[in-house]
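job 3f2a | input accepted
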Amino acid sequence: MSWSKMSLYNVLSKCSALNIDLKNNRDFFILVMRNYGKLQLNILLASCQIIIERYIFLVKLIRQPEKFNAFLLRRLVC
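job 3f2a | predicted structure (78 res):
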């Protein structure tokens, strides 16, 4: 079975055991997990993939974003 955005949204919205809030958007939907401090996950379906995005923190909280990006890239590139 392949998932569409609406079929996955409908299944998740009917599952009361998950303790979640769902917000539907045109291109994606937002799943808020109340059991984990209102953890927000942005869910996007693209062809054969389900992409889940989670912001760790806001860029505006970083004093020197260029240095931070360089720091991350040096450690993530193999």
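job 3f2a | The radius of gyration is 16 Å.
job 3f2a | closed
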